[in-house]
Amino acid sequence: MDTLILGLPVAYYIAMVAKVLVAFVFVLLTVAYATYAERKIIGHMQVRLGPMRTGWHGLLQPIADGVKLFFKEEIVPSQASKFAFLVAPLVALIPAFISFAVIPFGDNITIGGYTVPLQIAAYYDQAGKQVFDVNVGVLYILAMASLGVYGIVLAGWASNSKYSLLGGLRSAAQMISYELAAGLAIISVFMLSESLSLHKIVADQAGGAWYAFKQPLAFVIFFICSLAEINRTPFDLPEAETELVSGFCTEYSSMKYAMFFMAEYANMITVCAVTTTLFLGGWHGPAFLPGWFWFIAKVYFLIFLCMWIRATYPRYRYDQLMRLGWKVFLPLTLVNVMATGFWVMFISK
Amino acid sequence: MESIFFLIVAAVAVISSILVVTCKNPINSALSLVMTFFCLATFYVMLDAPFMAATQVIVYAGAIMVLIIFVIMLLNVRVETVKRGTHAVMAGSAIGLFILFQTVWFLMKGSMTGKVGEMTKEQIISVGHVELIGKAIFTDFLLPFEVTSVLLLAAIVGAVILAKKKI
User: Fold this and answer.
1) Where in the sequence is the domain holding B88, given as residue range(s)?
2) Dihedral angle at the C-alpha atoms of A137, A142, A148, A154, nearest 10 degrees?
3) Helix A330-342 and helix A162-193: axis angle, to 10°?
4) What separation in angstroms does the CA of A226 have from each of A21, A50, A81, A141, A311?
5) B61/A146 CB distance under 8 A
6) How many Cβ pairs within 8 Å bridge chains A and B?
7) Domain count along chain A
8) What is the ipTM of this complex?
9) B62 shares its domain with B103
10) Same domain? B5 vs B73
11) I want to staple A79 with a disulfide (CB 3.0 to 4.6 A). Which of A7, A160, A174, A273 is the partner?
12) Is this structure's pTM higher than 0.95?
């Protein structure tokens, strides 16, 4: 255990690989079962049963869907721009997954005298008893979120189809507009925590002092903007089936279509995890259960909320969507930033 | 280890920036430019400047390049006909080679190499990179910062006036 590789103990590498594997497999499983949960929950909300045939109450449905998509014929449109067409699903999928690298999903755990922080991109200084993580964690997540748009834009352009192109254009405009408001909403959280490190932000919210209570406006705006950024209902205009067939993924089939589908759900999980971390106290909760349990419970609650919203609200019209982003959310978040600044400068000190 | 990683990233950066100017398809050029920006962000991380890396990705790769791709898609520019071996290309590459030679010569012979500036690595780690940048912007460089913000405001107002038919 004491041998060093590049200045770090072997245990560090073992812990790192274990964390990456566990988090990745867990997110993949959640993605698979989120599709099932969505169909089941919306089914029950619309007084239907949802999938019932495969396994007990349809529990094996995600596996059946996966196998079906895997064996479908792969079709590349003859006029498509080949390279961009092949790369687009990957570009959509990868940013959705790598955002998890900076999210703290539990308290430090100690195995055999070696303390490991439950956050992938972090390490525990055994001598100094201190956690070091990426000190611009939130910006990292914003950066990854802004890269996700390329997958959709490329898919829309490369397919060489009118529907796809319109879906891609809509998505790009929508993501750029809502990114601003989401970023400004987070700024008010930074101003209170005085740090960009997610570890520090979670530590600040110990004992129920959640930022959702201190910054209710920022919390609501951030969550709604995130729904718009990941193209969930009521903002799913890029793939509005009544007007654009299936939007940017009209021409996709087989595993490439499955990748877009996975990216969509992985994005939803990422957004729920980020919201939990920034506003709902991260892994903090009553001490009788471990921190990671509370984290997963909060994330699952937010995922349920996304599905609930989908079952409740009709889709926005495009001009309404733009007006909401630029004329309502942007001014509101600016006012919120000003008010928070005033509070930090004159009242809390 | 670090130098091997640097060489890999540098190779990707050079190859993708060559692709920016040689790709016939404008979308592929734009994507190569995104790749170059990404490599630059990696260099910022290696220089202990994670904030710079994040802003590089958010602003350049995430916002500006999306707008450029947006415009290319709207105009529906397809494969361009590239003229090869023109005088402009020759002159450009000659100037490029000359500047490369000059840079290498300066680094090898000049007095710039190995100098330590005001901000050392230890200082960045102990105080924090974001804190140092924030302090510099809001104290020493306050005037340039404010002038830039006024300039951007003027640009925004100008764009609104140009785009709107009735004010």
Assistant:
1) 84-115
2) -130
3) 10
4) 26, 27, 30, 12, 17
5) yes
6) 75
7) 1
8) 0.75
9) no
10) yes
11) A160
12) no
